[in-house]
Design brief:
The chain has 439 residues and is α+β, with helices and mostly antiparallel strands. It has helices spanning 2-60, 96-104, 141-148, 150-179, 196-250, 255-287, 298-308, 310-315, 333-349, 396-401, 408-418; strands at residues 67-73, 78-81, 106-113, 118-126, 130-139, 294-297, 319-324, 328-331, 356-364, 367-374, 422-428, 432-438. Helices cover 56% and strands 19% of the residues. A hairpin with a 2-residue loop joins strand 9 and strand 10.
């Protein structure tokens, strides 16, 4: 950037100097040539007066070697020339100044010699029977310019040197604040208003990168915790199954106890199967990006889920109270089914014996609202923000006794994301919880 600034300044100075030189040259050339013509006209007037007084004798007496005087008849033949032998001179009828003088009484012209780098000026006047021409030679305009404008060239060199120094200092002053921008706190470096949008974008990108980095770290932490939790959750039933199986294998178990041991092995195997099933559901919800969505009648899904869980509810004598309007949404069937199933299943597992579950389905302000309310153990306020984490249990011992995997509400959370839905939880200890889903 510094190099560009220096280049721009130097180019600007050179352009200005060049422009001044061109304008000065044109003006000087015009004035110089005009002065030469005027001076030659004055000389010619004096020569004409002398010729009119003393005829050709006056012309022969002219001693100024820089002034050439030629007398030409109206046919173009040279009668007299004070510098050359007129007998050897060619006819001048084709000369520009001669033709103009013959036609108009007065003529001027100039001719440039590239070999001599000289300019010849001619002034001719028509007399009665002759044309008298006076000429002189002068240095070319370019030569005169070079001789007379040398101070300008010195100034130009000085200006170029100064522009280089100025460009260096200016570019340093401009660029250094930019090079020293504190990328940790970009908006604290707002020295130039012109770069404020850039600093704002840098700040926004920095915050976005920090957010993304934090998300990556959190995701990595979640994966580690998930792996650790899965390992822990699987080890427990595996140890139980392995232990009971080993006892049966060694023949240590009484025949009367085989059935009991078999039931425990079956129970732990079922728990493992349910855990793996829930893990697969979460994995599918996280990995699939394009879920097929159709128009779904939520009332039919809720009724089907309640019917499938009626046996579990009957074990605790939990009663259902349904208030279901005929509402439809656009969503993915499997994820919606898992969402509602886990909410109702939890309402049964964490309910009191002889408890009640109230399920409402209604449309409010173009939104479909599903609420599942139970009369169970409730959730402490400090745990409300964590209940959707994987394997998080408010009451671990009770969760295991009820056959929970700790993944039900995690499945609910991912199902909400897939279907662009939100959830609100209201709970009071020992009085129950209400989960309100808005589609």
């Amino acid at each position: 950037m510094k190099r560009k600034i220096n280049s721009v300044i130097i180019s600007l100075v050179v352009c200005v100097i060049t422009l001044i030189t061109i304008v000065s040259s044109i003006s000087f050339s015009s004035i110089y040539e005009k002065n030469e013509i005027i001076e030659l006209q004055n000389e010619c007037s004096l020569v004409i007066k002398g010729y009119e007084l003393d005829d050709i004798s006056y012309l022969e007496s002219i001693e100024d070697s820089s002034l050439r005087v030629t007398l030409i008849d109206l046919e173009g033949n040279v009668i007299f020339d004070n510098q050359l032998d007129e007998s050897e001179m060619e006819n001048h009828a084709s000369r520009e100044e001669f033709k103009e003088a013959k036609e108009n009484g007065y003529g001027i012209s100039k001719r440039y010699s590239s070999s001599l780098l000289k300019t010849f000026y001619y002034v001719a006047y028509k007399l009665d029977n002759n044309i008298i021409r006076v000429s002189k030679v002068a240095d070319s305009t370019l030569y005169i310019l070079f001789i007379n404008l040398w101070p300008l060239y010195i100034v130009a060199i000085v200006l170029i040197i100064c522009s280089i120094l100025l460009g260096f200092l200016l570019s340093k002053k401009i660029v250094d604040p930019i090079n020293n921008i504190n990328l940790e706190h970009p908006l604290e470096n707002n020295k130039y208003k012109e770069i404020e949008p850039l600093l704002i974008r840098i700040e926004a990108q920095k915050n976005e990168l920090m957010k993304e980095n934090e998300e990556v770290l959190n995701a990595s932490k979640v994966r580690q915790e998930f792996t650790s939790n899965v390992s822990h959750e699987l080890k427990t039933p595996l140890h139980v199954i392995s232990g009971y199986a080993e006892l049966i294998k060694e023949g240590i178990v009484k025949d009367s106890d085989v059935k009991e041991f078999g039931e425990k092995i079956y129970s732990e195997a079922s728990r493992m199967s349910k855990l793996v099933e829930d893990i697969m559901k979460i994995s599918k919800l996280e990995s699939d990006k394009d879920f097929e969505k159709t128009q779904l009648k939520l009332k039919n899904i809720v009724v089907a889920i309640v019917d499938s869980l009626m046996i579990e509810a009957d074990k605790k004598n939990v009663k259902f109270k349904l208030s279901l309007n005929d509402c439809s949404i656009s969503g993915n069937y499997d994820s919606i089914y898992s969402l509602i199933f886990n909410l109702v299943d939890n309402a049964i597992k964490y309910n009191k014996t002889n408890g009640k579950i109230t399920i409402k389905l209604q449309e409010v302000s173009n939104n479909v609202i599903l609420s599942v309310k139970d009369t169970g153990i409730g959730i402490p306020k400090e745990d409300l923000d964590r209940i959707f984490e994987r394997f998080y249990r408010v009451d671990k011992s009770r969760s295991k006794d009820s056959g929970g995997t700790g993944l039900g509400l995690a499945i609910v959370k991912h199902s909400l994301i897939v279907n662009n839905a939100t959830i609100k939880v209201e709970s009071e200890l020992k009085k129950g919880s209400t989960f309100i889903v808005t589609f």
